[in-house]
Amino acid sequence: MNTPQSSAPINLGRFDLGSLRLFLMTVDAGSLTAGADRYGISLAAASKRMAELEAHVGHPLLERSKRGVVPTPAGQTLQRHAIELVAQLEQMALALSDFRHGTQGHLRIWANTSAFGHFLPTTLAIFSARHPGIKVDLEDVLSEEAARAVTTGVAELAVIGDNTPTEGLHTLPCETDELVLLVPAGHALAVRETVAFTDALDHDFVGMNRSTSLMRHIAAAAGACGRVMHTRVQVRSFDAMCRMVSAGLGLAILPRASALPLAPALGLVLRRLDGLWTRRRLLLAMRDRQQLSPPARAFVELVEASAQPAT
C-alpha cells in the first residue's frame, strides 16, 4: 500500500532516532524482518514504526517485494542523510559519556582477521601509549562487515582487505604483507624454497570462511587456473589454521606476519608461492576524514606517519 503524499511541511520534531536507526538497519539487511531482529523489536512494532515514518515524510520509503525491501528514491535520500545524522548523534553520546566516566574519548575500529596478525596490535600499542586516556572499541569481523560499519556510522574506522568494495569511503594503505604457503616440516612440498600455486592446489587446505577477503582472493586465483581449492577444514583464526596444519589436516595460505610467530613451535615451515599474487595490502577505511573524532584522527595520523619511509 502506497503512502499518500502530503504537501504539509515536515516537522523535524517528529523524527526520532530509533525509527531512523531501524530504517537504516532494514535497508542494510534488505528485509524488515531482519531489520527488526537487529534492532531488537517485533516485526509488528517495526512495521508500525516504518508506517509512521513514511506517513510523516509523505512518501513511500521502502519498495517491498517477496525478495525483501529496497529504498525508494525518497528512501535513498533519507538513508544518505540518516547515516550522517545517526553517526553524529552516536558520536555525541559517546563523547558526553566520556566526561561521565573520566576518559578522553573513544576510538571505534572494526577490523578483519588479517589486521590482528601484526598491524593492529602493534599500532594500537603505540597509540595507547601516546593516548592512555582514550578507550578503544575493537571488533573482529569480515572486511565487508567492517566497511559496512563505517558506512552506517557504527564505527569510524575499518581495517579491510584491498579487494573489499569501498564505494563512498576514503582509504589509505596501512600494511603490506606477503602471502605464504604453510606446510609441515616433513611434507613433500617443504623441500622446495618456492612452490607453484598449482602444485599446492593438489592438496587439501585449511582455510577460513569462504566469504573472507583472503579466501576470495585465493579462490579467484585458483579459478583463473581452471582449478578448485579443496578446503578440508574451516576455522576462524590464523592461530587455529596453524594448529590444523600442524595436525596434518591440510596446507594453508596466510600472511607471513601472522604465520611466522607460530610456525617454528608447531613444526611448520613457510614457503614462497609462484603463480599467485602474494602481495596483500590492508587498507584503513573511513567516510569523511574532516568529520573524524579527535581519537580517530590521531590514529589515522599515526598510521600515515608509520607508513612514511625513514629519512
Describe this structure in words.
The chain has 311 residues and is of the alpha/beta class. Helix content is 41%, strand content 22%. The protein has helices at residues 17-29, 32-39, 43-57, 73-101, 119-130, 143-151, 197-200, 213-224, 238-246, 256-259, 294-307; strands at 62-65, 68-71, 106-111, 135-140, 157-161, 170-184, 194-196, 205-207, 231-234, 252-255, 268-274, 279-286. The strands form 3 sheets. Strands 3, 4, 5, 6, 7, 10, 11 and 12 form an 8-stranded mixed β-sheet that branches. Strands 1-2 form a two-stranded antiparallel ribbon. Strands 8-9 form a two-stranded parallel ribbon. The chain is globular and about 75 Å long.
Overall mean confidence score, pLDDT = 88
Number of strands: 12
Low-confidence stretches: none
What Rg do the Cα atoms give? Answer: 23 Å
Helix fraction bin: 40-55%
In sequence order, what are the helices and strands, one letter per element?
HHHEEHEHEHEEEHEHEHEHEEH
β-strand percent reads 15-25%
Based on Cα principal axes, name the global outline.
globular
How many H/I helices?
11
Q: Which class best fits the helix and strand makeup?
A: alpha/beta
N- and C-termini, Cα separation:
66 Å
The biggest beta sheet, please?
Answer: 8 strands, mixed
List the helices and strands and how they pair.
Elements: H1 17-29, H2 32-39, H3 43-57, E1 62-65, E2 68-71, H4 73-101, E3 106-111, H5 119-130, E4 135-140, H6 143-151, E5 157-161, E6 170-184, E7 194-196, H7 197-200, E8 205-207, H8 213-224, E9 231-234, H9 238-246, E10 252-255, H10 256-259, E11 268-274, E12 279-286, H11 294-307
Parallel strand pairs: 3-4, 3-5, 7-11, 8-9
Antiparallel strand pairs: 1-2, 5-12, 6-10, 6-11, 6-12
